[in-house]
Amino acid sequence: MTHREHKSVVIVGGGQAGLSVSYYLCREGLDHVILERHQKFHSWRSNRWDTFCLVTPNWQCRLPDFPYQGTDPEGFMVKDEITDYLDAFAETFDPPVIENCEVTKITQRPGGGYFVDSSQGDFSADQVVIATGGYDNPIVPPYAKTLDPSIQQMHSVDYRRPAQMPEGGTLVVGTGQSGVQLMEDLHLEGRDVHLAVGPAPRSPRMYRGRDATDWLYEMGHYHMTIDKHPNPEHAVSKTNHYMTGRDGGHEIDLRKFAREGVSLYGSVSGMDGSRIQFLPDLEANLDDADQSYVRIREAVDSYIDKNNIDAPTEPAFEKVWRPEQEITEIDCKKEGITSILWAIGFRPDYHWIDVDVFDARGRPVYRRGVCKTEGFYFIGLGWLNTWGSGRFLGIDEDSRYLVQQIAAKAKSTLQVAS
């Protein structure tokens, strides 16, 4: 029989979510271990580009008993500052992390609990927390294989700086937060940039004297729980509003970039050799993004009026550019495009979890991270409970709640055993 070290709790994933759970488990005196495939906070250290910075203000960084420590709460930490903050949090306690330890399988143990197999030994556990996030497999569509191999392809997870891209034009595909920031990164370097615009919404940055996220927090938007959301399925699947924290933070209006020379197209629909096809949805996607932008402004206006808040006024929104026609196909060679930068997201990978905690589409099923299968939990996913659940803002509340459930089950099990 395989020897297994037993722990009350095994946490899989050594990012901010896993270590936040560990922090509260340490306070409860529950023995546990964190199994991390790389090194703790790996994604922040290794999977970000050089000019990466937070999109939300520093004051939203609220790890357990360790809020943002710096002097610029309204600013936006850059990559090295983020990892310094995370490392400083880890130094406030002694998290039992095993690094370079890949979990290969989790199964239920006869009689209760779980078996956890890993590259550095096998464990048994009464309870298991999955804190691996949702960024395992970079998404690249199948038709990318049909593109002329002379055109370099890269996913955003591998992008670090413009110098990585060959001379010539780069087509950035995707307009979520990463896509628009990578587009700007290349544009500011004077590169020839093309952008395939998807249906992502956008947000104001500063509006009526304050950052839009400050207003939304004060308005209670970030306190809304998923069970109170009017359209929870849409909330979970919706792409985040794009803006940036770069150079002190600013909003991103793709129409302004078009005026500055960035070539805009609709959503990519196919590739064949050096040719790329697009849907005729550029103007619709720009309009939809602007509608989201305007709705946020209107919500803030309404809140200011309702509460008689003295705030500066803003000029009405105006569209500064619109496409003269919808381009539905280009030839990369004729356009001088020598590279594609994919920024259309990631998919989680749970193939190593052989436990009945998924729906028919392979998505984990839980309520506030607690699965129906006893002793099995998820944390660090968007809208686990609130908008901030997948971010620094909500991780303290989520991890504290989860450990309360873990501790209660551990106590109950101990009482039954005695």
From TrEMBL:
- What keyword terms does UniProt attach to this protein? Oxidoreductase
The answer, when asked if Cell membrane is one of the entry's keywords, is: no
The gene name on file is: czcO
Q: Which InterPro entries match?
A: Auxin_biosynth/cation_transpt, CHP04046_FMN-dependent, FAD/NAD-bd_sf
Protein name in the entry: Putative oxidoreductase CzcO
UniProt entry tagged with the keyword Acetylation: no
> Could you say which EC number(s) this protein's record lists?
1.-.-.-
| An example molecular function term from Gene Ontology annotations | monooxygenase activity
Entry-linked NCBIfam families? MSMEG_0569_nitr
